[in-house]
Design brief:
The protein is built from 26 helices and 30 strands. The protein is an alpha+beta fold and 939 residues long. A ten-stranded mixed β-sheet has the order 3-4-5-12-13-14-15-23-24-26, covered by helices on one side. The longest helix has 28 residues.
């Protein structure tokens, strides 16, 4: 924990006294920094006060046990743990009147350095580095005189701000969450989901380190030296905090350290822990593709319904892998072919109907792993307020199983701005956690000069932020880098194999699968009362990847495997991030693109300096054999392998950088996980005519038509899109056309239509009438839309598709992602909304029914069988049902909200990963960490 204010220190001492904790626990409070030397001089900053950023809830993510108790009993917060929540929340109400001069009310100055009168503390963890924290936000500004000292300071500061979170996620990455944080069912589920995606042995982690040393050249060697110094800094702070008794209180609550005797340990971090942490980041935000088995099942259902040829055509129209109406980031017409449908696909391995079973993962459940029992452990009375804080899990159960595709970017060329310099508003949309997964920092040292956000625990470099005269950010692109292979099963004795066989054919030989196991056990604690238990996780690994399903193909048993290009290579991207932080490397768009080419995560990268803008799509795109359909399972035979595939360390030939979508100085760029470029196939379903990217594209296109774009104007465009219902803006007009095609006689239905029309006319927003009112404008229309959407989709599509195909397509793409749905990276109340849904399907189908021009239509008409009158009747009946639903039915309530509370159902609630909780804020669909930048000068 970092030094706090005198007032807060007195508060927590009072809390300790009131709670009867005594001196033993009152003592572990942060001590004031030594009389501070002057803050080091800042690096040259060419942004001249025109760069800003924000990351809620606050920079400080550590809290001692006393501070956690103070939060629960008195509602107090450690210094700088919640001070960014208010400005972040206020933008939703304040954006309509936003000007450049008012940006500072909603964002923080992200200039380099700290003015002398704003220095709160200066810490010197060793002689060659200082950590300066500013008074307003407490962000660490790290400046080193040596490279090693700089990285040591970065690790030290990271531990000051995120020690518990880093420790938690290294155990997630190792598949050991329950053993570390408790056996709550949500912890079990999350641990299992992650182990399915990235099961490793210790030697696998070490192999990634060895690979960087062997193939990364001088930058690779420097990166690992930086990483080791970073770890040394983490461990130095962890030891000081443990010895000084100001370590995060969660260690006490989860049974790792005794509150009275201080017995216990914070296990030192090691280099392989960073590989485990990198695998978490890659799995959450940098993956793409997969799901070919689920795609095959829906294709089978379509073929069963319509016949082979028509069924395939129907399925392809729902797949929308290259929809001509989809909004694109690179919109200048340049083609980047990748992942498209071949004219004559080779090697497809479709399962026999009814033969697919998921691979078993969990074995040998005992105790609390097999029951729902809870045990109340003995604890001081003072800790009763904290009992069971992790009974529902320390992290969301579906953190890794939900489809991820977040973050947005708006970048405008200087040709269209008021100043003549490019303007950018961009950032990652990573959910809302307390503490946040990202942390802010400035790092200045030999070969490093940057400020921005990094994922806690792998913050050797700024991953998203700004340099001396340039800024960059990323969104998830999710292109297909994961394929499914069907490996033929065999018996080593030459007998007939079963679906459960653990040997398979590789290049003609019958070879054993490699078994990867993890046995986890836990005991009840104050934080998690789940009864003591254990289980064993088991995955089989083949040369074609991890076994996910069993099936038969043509009557013969196979195992379906998932082969991800970045598996065993999650840490390789460290070199690209190092280059982004190096002012000696990044000097212009081309050098920026070169840096991002060294990042293998599937990201869209955006760049702006004072003169130019740029875009590049990164990712380890495998070069596939000719005529392979990557949307479906493929036979595991040499002819269908990735080109130059070597299973020893999972390497292959990859598409060259020139084939990745990229651009320099396009008029504008937008990204909200939409289609990247012409002929660059979307990896999932539903990327068609209506996408949340349209909310940005429409607004930015209008801005550049007018010209004179400012930072405030671009921020307003983002903020307006952030409170807009995509269905209401882009699909409701067609719905209303259908309904108004005949007079509406029923008074209640007519009223509902009028309410929807009024809401659409006002912008289809989900926004408070005034800041703090907790009441939406047009609340009835919003309620009706939320109730109507799932009903109208079913009434329009299910009769034509039939039950089996309708359900199969729903498994490929959920129907809805409204803010109140429990869909986001932190479960319900997660902010991010309207990415995955049937909006394009409804839009295209209704436009066809209305007789309008549709490019890339669905293969057949569904609503009313293509008849306008029948379609209208179906939609009107669904509308009448929806309008009759009360607010308590539409918004049933949860642990954070009362039933019927519409505003709260949408609202953002920071998921408490640590012991501190925060106020609920209104819904916004915007980046978690966000920059607003406009550089007026360049080196």
């Amino acid at each position: 924990m970092r030094p706090g204010s005198g007032t807060f220190t007195r508060t927590v001492i009072a809390a300790a006294a009131v709670l009867g904790l005594g001196a033993a626990l009152a003592a572990p409070l942060p001590q004031p920094a030594q009389a501070a030397p002057a803050a080091p001089a800042a690096a040259t900053d060419y942004c001249q006060g025109q760069c800003a950023d924000i990351l809620p809830p606050g920079a400080n993510g550590n809290a001692t046990l006393v501070e956690i108790l103070g939060n629960k009993v008195f509602g107090t917060h450690p210094a700088h743990s919640t001070d960014q929540l208010g400005p972040y929340n206020d933008l939703a109400g304040g954006y309509p009147t936003l000007t450049d001069s008012k940006l500072s009310s909603f964002f923080n100055d992200s200039s380099f350095g700290v003015p002398a009168d704003q220095v709160a503390s200066v810490t010197k963890p060793r002689d060659d580095v200082t950590i300066t924290r500013d008074k307003k936000t407490g962000v660490p500004h790290i400046q080193g005189t040596t490279r090693e000292g700089t990285e040591y300071g970065a690790g030290y500061a990271a531990a000051q701000d995120r020690l518990w979170l880093m420790d938690l996620f290294r155990h997630v990455g190792r598949g050991e969450l329950t053993s570390f944080a408790g056996g709550a069912p949500a912890n079990q589920g999350l641990e299992q989901d992650f182990f399915r995606q990235a099961p490793y042995r210790e030697e696998d982690y070490q192999a990634q380190i060895d690979s960087i040393l062997a193939h990364g050249g001088e930058r690779g060697k420097q990166a690992l030296a930086d990483a080791q110094a970073y770890i040394d800094g983490i461990n130095a702070y962890a030891k000081k905090a443990k010895d000084g008794r100001y370590f995060p209180g969660e260690y006490v609550l989860t049974g790792h350290i005794d509150a009275i005797t201080n017995a216990g340990e914070i296990q030192p971090f090691k280099l392989t822990d960073l590989i485990a942490l990198a695998s978490v980041v890659g799995a959450l935000f940098g993956n793409g593709g997969g799901g070919e088995v689920q795609g095959a099942l829906s294709l089978l259902a379509a073929q069963q319904k319509y016949g082979l040829a028509e069924g395939t055509e129907v399925w392809e129209s729902f797949r929308q892998r290259n929809d001509p109406e989809a909004v694109q980031t690179v919109h200048d017409g340049k083609s980047f072919p990748y992942g498209g449908k071949p004219a004559d696909a080779k090697g497809v391995a479709m399962p026999d109907r009814g033969s697919v079973t998921s691979e078993q993962l969990v074995y040998d459940r005992e105790g609390g792993a097999a029951t729902k029992d809870h045990v109340k452990v003995k604890a001081p009375r003072s800790l009763e307020k904290l009992r069971g804080i992790y009974d529902d899990g320390v992290l969301p159960r579906d953190l890794f199983s939900r489809k991820k595709g977040m973050s947005n970017a708006l970048v405008v060329s200087g040709k269209y701005t008021a100043s003549g310099h490019p303007v950018a508003v961009f950032g990652p949309q990573t959910g809302y956690f307390a503490p946040q997964l990202l942390m802010l920092q400035e790092i200045q040292g030999p070969g490093i000069s940057a400020r921005g956000a990094s994922f806690a625990g792998v913050g050797m470099y700024v991953q998203l932020g700004r340099g001396q005269d340039y800024a960059w950010s990323a969104t998830t692109s999710g292109q297909d880098i994961t394929d499914t292979y069907a490996v033929d099963l065999c018996s080593p004795d030459g007998g007939t194999p079963t679906k459960d066989a653990t040997h398979y054919r590789y290049h003609g030989d019958c070879v054993p699968m490699e078994k990867l196991e993890r046995r986890n056990a836990w005991k009840p604690t104050v934080a998690d009362s789940t009864a003591a238990g254990s289980y064993r996780l088991q995955m089989y690994r083949t040369k074609y990847g991890l076994v996910t399903h069993r099936a038969t193909v043509g009557g013969k048993p196979v195992a379906y495997t998932s082969l991800r290009a970045t598996y065993r290579h999650e840490a390789d991207s460290i070199i690209g991030f190092q280059m982004l932080n190096d002012p000696g490397h990044v000097k212009d768009p081309k050098s920026f693109q070169t840096a991002t080419q060294n990042i293998n995560y599937t990201f869209n990268w955006f760049y702006a300096d004072s003169r130019q803008t740029a875009y590049y799509n990164s990712g380890l795109n495998p070069a596939r054999a000719a005529d392979i359909d990557s949307s479906l399972p493929v036979k595991a035979e040499p002819a269908y392998e990735w080109r130059e595939f070597d299973p020893t360390d999972n390497t292959a030939a990859y598409t060259p950088p020139s084939e990745h979508p990229q651009s320099i100085d396009q008029d504008y760029y937008i990204s909200w996980n939409n289609k990247l470029a012409k002929d660059y196939a979307a990896s999932g379903f539903g990327n068609g005519s209506v996408h949340r990217g349209n909310l940005l594209d429409d607004r930015v296109r209008e801005l550049i038509k007018k010209g004179g774009v400012t930072r405030a104007a671009l921020t307003r465009a983002m903020a307006e899109a952030a409170v807009t219902d995509l269905r209401g803006e882009d699909v409701l007009p067609e719905l209303l056309k259908v309904l108004r095609s005949q007079p509406i006689d029923d008074p209640k239905a007519a009223t509902a239509v009028q309410q929807l029309e009024s809401w659409r006319g006002a912008g289809a927003q989900r926004k408070e009438t005034s800041p703090g009112s907790h009441t939406y404008g047009h609340p009835d229309a919003v309620r009706i839309m939320d109730a109507w959407w799932p009903l109208l989709v079913e009434s329009a599509f299910k009769p034509g598709l039939g039950d089996e195909l309708y359900e199969a397509l729903k498994s490929n793409l959920p129907i809805d992602e409204a803010p109140s749905a429990g869909h986001g990276p932190t479960g319900s109340h997660a902010g991010s909304s309207f990415q995955n849904g049937w909006w394009s399907y409804v839009d295209k189908d209704l436009r066809k029914v209305l007789g309008e021009d549709v490019k890339g239509p669905l293969a057949t008409s569904y609503c009313g069988g293509g008849d306008l009158g029948s379609c209208r009747d179906a939609l009107l009946t669904a509308l009448e049902q929806a309008a009759a639903k009360s607010a308590t039915e539409v918004y049933p309530g949860d642990t954070g909200c009362k039933a019927g509370d519409q505003w709260c159902a949408d609202a953002i609630i920071h998921r408490a990963v640590g012991g501190i909780t925060h106020d609920t804020i209104g819904w916004q669909n915007r980046p978690t960490y966000q920059q607003v930048v406009e550089f007026p000068a360049h080196r």
